[in-house]
Every structure is written in structure tokens, then in C-alpha cells.
Amino acid sequence: LATWTRLLPRRAREAQMKRFCKAQAIQRRLEEIEVTFGELEQQGVKLEKLLREESASPAELRTQWMNQLLYLVQKKNSLVSEESDLMITVQELKLEEQQSRLDQQLRRFMSKEEAQKTSAERAAEQETLARLLEVVNQRNALIHVQEERRLSEL
């Protein structure tokens, strides 16, 4: 039992650090996506201008510009999808963090003998359990959303 009481908090801290590092990586990627959106927007504006202003250009050139514009739209859609996935992952990490915290609280409550608990402690334990179940249900719903998105993309 003594080993578990030392091991659980350490594992919880390790998991917390992993979530933190993952959240930082996601934040960096979201910033990169934002910059790329700006670049794609600028390229798109240039191509649209060319298509409007250079209406006398050869058909081959206009087709090339149109294909480049379509490529930009595809790339932007791909980034929008990635951004959406990352936002879901951020939400998932937040819920994971909440679940971990609530789980630790619940373990503290449950480590005390039932006969030694006050009515306030019992009520707090029940409230913590209810919040933990709510977080688990929210995580489950997020996983369901991700699955639905994957299936719709296929």
C-alpha cells in the first residue's frame, strides 16, 4: 500500500507533464496553421486577381491559375479539418486533466474509512463521483464525435 501511495502521485504528475507537452505541441501547430491560412489567403487573392484582370490571357495559363486556386482551396480545407481535430484533442486533454484531478480527489475520499467520514465528506465524495462521471461522459461524447468525423471523411 505504501508503494502505491508514492507511485500514484508520481504517475499522475508524469501523465500531467505528457498532457502539457502535447498541449504545447498542439498550440504550436495551431499557430503554424494560422500562418499558413494567411499565406494561402494571399496566394488566393493574387490568383483571383490574375483570373479577373487577365481575361485575355491564353486558356492554358488561365487553366493553370484555376488549378492552382483549386489546390489552395483543397489545402485550406485540409488545414481546417486538421485544426478542428486539434481543437477536439485540446478539449480531450482538458477533460483528461479534469478526470485525473477528480480521480485523485476520489481516491483521497475513499482512502478514509467510511465510519470516520463526516456527512460533509460523504456529500463531497458523492459530488466528486458525479463530476467524474460527467467528465467521463463528455470524453466519451468527444470520442464519438471524432469517430463520426473519421467515418464521414472516408
Automatic annotation (TrEMBL):
Locations listed in the record: Membrane
One Gene Ontology MF term: monooxygenase activity
Pfam family, one: bMERB_dom
Keyword Iron applies: no
Any coiled-coil regions, as ranges: 88-115
PROSITE patterns on file: BMERB (PS51848)
InterPro entries tied to this protein: bMERB_dom, F-actin_Monoox_Mical
Keywords: Coiled coil, Membrane, Monooxygenase, Oxidoreductase
BMERB domain sequence ranges: 13-154
Protein name per its UniProtKB record: MICA1 monooxygenase
Organism this protein belongs to: Nothoprocta pentlandii
Taxonomic placement: Eukaryota, Metazoa, Chordata, Craniata, Vertebrata
